[in-house]
Structures are given as structure tokens and as C-alpha cells.
Amino acid sequence: MNGENFDCQGLLGTALLLITLLLVFMMYGLLLESIQHYIIEKYGTDHWNRILEYIQQRNIVFTTHKIYTDDLMKKIAKGCCQVFNEQKTEDDYMLFFGQCFVKFFDHCGYDKIVRLQGRHFRDFLHGIDNLHETMRYSYQRMQSPSFLVQSEDRYGCVLSYRSKRTGFKNYVAGQLAQCAKMFYDIDIELEILLEELLNTGCNVTFRINFDNSAYCAPMQASVPSDFFYDIEFISNELFFKVFPFSIVFNRDMVVTMTGYRMSKWLDTNDLIGSYIDVRFKLRRPILEFTWDNIITHQTVVFELQCANLTPRRHSTIMASLVENTISSKFKLIFRGQMKYIPYWNAIAFLCNPLVGSLDDMRRVGLYINDLNLFDCSRDIVLNGWQYASQMEFSLEQQQENSKLIEENMIKQDEWQLKSETLLYSMIPRTIAERLKRGEDPVNTCEMFEQVTILFSYIVDFADICAEASAMQIVKCINAVFTCFDAVVDKYDVFKVETLGDAVYMVAGGVPDRNENHAVNVAGLAIELVEKAASLIDPVSGENLQLRAGMHSGSVVGGIVGKRMPQYCLFGDTVNTASRMQSYSESGRIHLSEPCHECLRGKGFTTVFRGTLNVKGKGEMNTYWLAGRDGEKRTKIICELLKAEKAKKMKTQYRYNDVKPFSFFHAKLSSFENGFDLHGMHNITSSANFSLLQTTNQEDSQHKGGQNPKPKSTLKKKNSSSLDIVAESASDDKSKPAPVFV
Questions:
Q1: Do 381 and 371 meet the contact criterion of CB atoms below 8 Å apart?
Q2: Strands 589-592 and 546-560
Q3: From the centroid of its chain, how far is CA 540?
Q4: How many angstroms separate the CA atoms of 652 and 642, rounded?
Q5: CA distance 257 to 490
Q6: Residue 640 above 70 pLDDT?
Q7: How much is the pTM?
Q8: 231 Cβ partners below 8 Å, 6+ apart?
């Protein structure tokens, strides 16, 4: 049982510690709003957005009364170091943030409180610890630090700064320097004398150098003697009537007397004779609750929070209401001054309960007549009740509006991403960025000396359109181009356009110049041929076939049109690439000689096709792109090309009744010399050549004495290239095959 109790106590302690840390390391949005305002004012909105992206808070909207984590400000300082090229550290930006806050609350009206704090800067330093109390009703969850002037001289003072936060010393230094400059027109020098990191926060001691001539001025007392030295002439009844919630304790920290309202509020007056540091927790100032510390901090406002005190239970008609509203989680706080009374040799805590509304009073079991008649406690509560509902409603509206703005910003980013995706699908990203910056579209036109153009076409697409329904055609072409678009994104190329007759155009090296333009387009072409073979003809149910053509040369590129602008390419290179596609064959990639030269030694195998009479171009040496070096399918394609060319030549000699041996041997030698294979020693790959299959069928029918079938009855088979190679090998066993040297 003891072990179980120990575990429960340990878990409870851990939970309380986590809750405490969560409350401590929070800040109001007012501080972050000031940073945002002055970064945008000094550096611009673009830099601020880059900082938010760096800290992964792209669409955050800071709200004045909303709570944020402390590390957010530190992350912003770190983001400034990354975004701005100013050779500054995070401490420098934290100093800047502190200055920003002082300038920002000047616009919010809080500057009046600071200006009226005192005539001199030393007055401000002595009263800075109390400034946070004036904002307590607007920022109820504020965790304020503690400030104390330890010593003072003609040239400045030593200021102690205690906080439950760590890492904000430069932020505080920036606030102090800006307050001195704005409100007292003096420049100060700050030096950190001591910095202690404690379990409960930090303790920093500053030496502040400034013209402190006000310290040397003669001070005249407003009364002939100290009131508390003449306490013997005042009765205890009168004293505790003026201070009804006061607590008197001796050097041993034992409570000796209390005000009569304090005793009425408590269930039993067992406070007398108990230790004050046990019954109360010291909230402010942030220091150890000891006699010596209290004696040296008599000019500072103290706050004590009830720890082990139970309010009196009521027996009136309002008892049930009060008992239901008293919250054990709401601990009453007493705020006032600690004053040493020599006649009693004790310290009197002259305090009042810290309540700001009627709801607060109901939570702790207090009534209006419990409050001091001789100060403003009653007026504060009553006036606060009148405006509390309005402030709460305004706060809720502000939070709802900020949440709505944040949601709209997220939606805006989503739609902006969609619009940019659509824009980049029509216009290259680099060109689109130039247009968004306001550049004239005419200036985007430029000459590109070396680019590679690819045209591809779905074989027999006209026949598919003639026999298929409109919906089948749309689904087929959408499947093809969707598949192709996904492949294009993997390569550094630009999809120029898609034409309605199943022509797909891609360019490499434009508009972003790239010396590997031919390599990128060649790799894309090989993958497009493979992907096309995996798609189905909606009419016959067989695999689709793609033919492609490539050419390298110079082009002119630029934006054409205003209503529907499009990035277009012009020049003879485009026409030649289109011709290479037209003269290509099913499942093959046709290359011009300039493109072949660009691929030489780049890891690709090309096969010399021959000299073709290209319409509008004349005689041209062209090549087949077999594949990449070292791949199995490349070797298979090369063998197929050899076998196909040998069969064609053999068939031609047979039909022309030419003696095959001598003439064929002579032609074979010239053919073999023209058969250009780069890297044949380690080549592989595979492709589907319907023309070779058709030739095999015609050859077998001719040998069997059958008439060849009409061309319209020849159908493609769903057979792999390996099957074709196997069939070709079986045919070679039955008839002599040409020998390639």
C-alpha cells in the first residue's frame, strides 16, 4: 500500500510539474504581433513569409489575447538569422524584438502608463515591477517577471531580473533601452554582471549606466515621522479595520495576528500559529520566501497565493450557490506590501484579495462587504463587472476572426498551389515567374543554340478513332497522356504541347538551358515506348504501340498570345523532329544524325538505319535508338534489327531473281559496315516490332506456297520481344542465316 501511495504521489507531482511548465512557458500574442509589425515594416512581407515557412508556421495569425509558446519567439529569431544576411546572432534579434515591443505598445496606448510612472528613469526602474499589475485585468494569464533595484549611485544602478522563463535577457535589455530612449530621452549602457539558470527559471543581474543625477537630489519626507514607528499609539482594532486582510508574522515566519476579514473568510482561524511559507506560496517577486529577502524587498509589491487554506462554509440561503461555485482549482491571491514594524518586531503583510470580477468573488467565497471600505477594491470589482461581458464578447469575436483569417489563408494557399500547378503546366516555371514579376512577354523570347525535340505518336490512332465511340477515344487518349505526363515529371524536360491527333511533343534544354538535353529526352523516349506498350487499344484490346522521333538543333522560344498565352518553339529543328517521327516505325525511336552525335558516348546505343529521302529535307542519315548501354533489352533490340535487315535484303534479292550468294555477300559487307553499334559488348533491352513479326509471317507463307494475307488482316500479337527472338531463332534453324562479321 505504501508503494502504491508513493507511486500515486510521484505521478501527481509529475503532472503538476508539467502543468506548471505549460503555464510558465506561454506568452500573449501581443508580443509576437509587435515582432511581425516591425519586421514587415523594415524588411518587407516576403521576408516575413520566408521566416514563417522556416519555422513551419506558414499560415499563423497572431491574436493579441491568444496564448502562444515561448519558444516561438526564439524560433523567429533563429529564422531571422537564416533569412537575413546581416551577420547578426539570435541575441541581436532578441534585443531588436524587445525594442519592437516598446514601440508597438506605444501605438496601443500603453505608453501613457510608462510616461506617468515617474519623472526620472530611476523612478521607472523602481516601479517597473508594478507595471504588469496594471495590465492584469486585460491579460489574466500573464506570467510577469520580477525586477528589483539592488543598488544605486550617481552613474546608474544595479537591476535584478528574475523570471520563470529562460533565454529572454536580451529581450528585456532591448525593452529597457527603448523605454529610456523613448520616454526619458537618455541613452543607457547595459552590462550583464551575473546570469544564473535555476530549476525555477533564471536570475540575471544588470549594471545599467546612465545619468542618474536625480538620485543625488535631497529627499524631503512628507510626514515628520514614520507612521509604523508610531504604531504603539494605534490600537490593534483600528489597525486591522484599516487593513482587514493583513497578516503579521515574526522572524520565524510564524503568523501571530490576522485581520478580522481574513478570519471571517477562513473556515477556522487556524492560520495563527502556522508558518506563513507553508500556508501561502510566494508568486511575486520571484525569490525565496525568507525573512531576510522580505526585509530587503519592502518597496516591492508581493503576491501570496493560498496553498492550504479552506474558505468558511456558509449556512445561509446562498450556501448552496456559493458552495457550488467555489472552485478548488481557483486559489485566492493576496497582493500588497511587506512592511517591517519595529514595535512588534514583525512584518505586516498589508494586502487585499486580488479579485477582478463578481465571478472571481463567487469562486473564492467572498462578498462585497468583505472588501476594504477605505480603498478602491469595491469600485474595481463593480466597474469590472459592468464591462466584463463586453470585453469577453469582444475577445471572443477577435479570436473567431483570427481563426477565420487563418482558415482563409490556408484555403488561399491551396488555391494558389492549384493555380500555379495549372500555370506551370502551360508555361515553364522560370518563364511564369518572370511574368509574375511584371516582365514583358516579348522579353521572354530568346534563341537556344542546342535543344532536343521529341515527337511521339500513337500508331493506328486514326483507325481507333474510326471504330471506337467518342467516350472510348476520350478515355484512351486521357489514359495515354496522363501516363506520359507522370513520366515527363521525372526528367528535366518541358512538355511543349499535346495535339488532338495523339501527337506528344517534349523539348529538352529549353527554357532552362541544359547540356544534357539529348540524354534527358532520350531517357524519356525509351520510357514512353515502354509505358505505351502497357496501355490497351479500346477497339482490339491489344497493346498500344508508339513511334517517336528526335532531333537536336537550335530553336526560338517565347510566349505567344495574351488571352491564352502559351510557350511555343519555332525553327527548322521542330519540323525536322516531326519528320523523324513521321518516318519512324512502331515501337521505335528514330534519331537524326545531329541527335545521334549528341548521344555519342553518353551511355546509349544507336543503330544506323540508313540514308532516307525525307520530305522537305532531302537525303538524311538516320539512326535507331536501341536503348541504354548495359541493359539486356538493348542487346535484344540490336539482334532484332540485324535479323530484320537481313530478312529484308534476302527477300528483296529473292523477288528480283538475283543470285544471292555473291551479290548478297557483297551487300552484306557494306550493310555490316553501316550497322553502327555503340557499346555492343554490354548491351541489353527489349521492344515489340510488329514489322519484324509481319516479315516472319510473310516469309513462312511464301515458303509454304500460300499467298500472303492482305495487309488489313495482319494483327498485332501480345507477344514479348523475347518470344519474337525465340521464333526468329527457330526460323534460323530451318534456313541458312546470313553471317555478320
A1: yes
A2: parallel
A3: 50
A4: 16
A5: 83
A6: yes
A7: 0.46
A8: 239, 341, 343, 344
